[in-house]
Amino acid sequence: FSSCFSDTGTKPPESGVFGFMINISALLGIITMCIRYLLIEKQNESSHFVRSSCNMFSLCIGLMGCIGMGIVATFQELSVPSVHDIGALVAFGSGVVYITLQSIISYKSCPQWNTYLVCHLRMAISVVSCIAFIPMIVFASQISMTKIDWTPDEKDYTYHLVSAICEWTVAFGFIFFFLTFIRDFQVVSLRISTEIHED
């Protein structure tokens, strides 16, 4: 028995919960990526380890991935499969590019802002995600029908199984990669300044 990521939220009421949680995850992803972007910009002021344009490009790619997640949440697998698949491709494709770019940026900021252990860990997660992403797309494209419940004796079951395993591998890769930001974000403080203008 296997299940693709989107299979968990195809039928109501699960579909509503799935869509809501994916949108919340996309929002949290946007916040995390923006904080990461601002942190790198601040660190770059003194170290100049990466071009600002590269940092901005990485942010834009990451935000594209979050938009893809929103598409996946809105257009469900069985309702509008073509739009759903495009959203999934954008989400996973952009996500893989984002974490790879962030891994490269991490190495450039070493050893002042990151340890080599963290850099190696991020790159390992990126490599595994990239490797899993390719068969995910290849095998998913070989599946000739869109359905939820699969049995081992059905046509395309093997393609579905391999694609599902790869899809979950990439998804968990994103989660574990974001967890590596915890130590970086511990040095971040939010300063809110207010100015009162009196006439």
Describe, in plain words, how this protein is organized in 3D.
There is one protein chain. The protein is mainly α. The protein has one domain (13-188). 70% of the residues lie in helices and 0% in strands. It contains six helices and no strands. It has helices spanning 14-47, 52-74, 81-108, 116-142, 157-179, 182-185. Helix 2 packs antiparallel against helix 3 (81-108) and helix 3 packs parallel to helix 5 (157-179). The radius of gyration is 19 Å and the shape is elongated. The relative contact order is 0.12. It is found in: Endomembrane system. Residues 6-186 form the CWH43-like N-terminal domain. It is a multi-pass membrane protein. It holds the Pfam family Frag1. This is DNA damage-regulated autophagy modulator protein 1.
| Stretches with pLDDT under 50, minimum 5 residues | none
Residue share in β-strands: under 5%
Output mean pLDDT: 86
Helix content: 55-70%
Radius of gyration: 19 Å
Terminal CA distance reads: 70 Å
Tally the beta strands: 0
- Provide the domain count: 1
Q: Biggest sheet: strands, sense, closure?
A: none
**Based on helices, strands and strand pairing, what is the structural class?**
mainly alpha
Outline: elongated
Series of secondary-structure elements, N-terminal to C-terminal? HHHHHH
List the total number of helices: 6
Subcellular location: Endomembrane system
GO biological process, one term: regulation of autophagy
Pfam family, one: Frag1
Keywords: Membrane, Transmembrane, Transmembrane helix
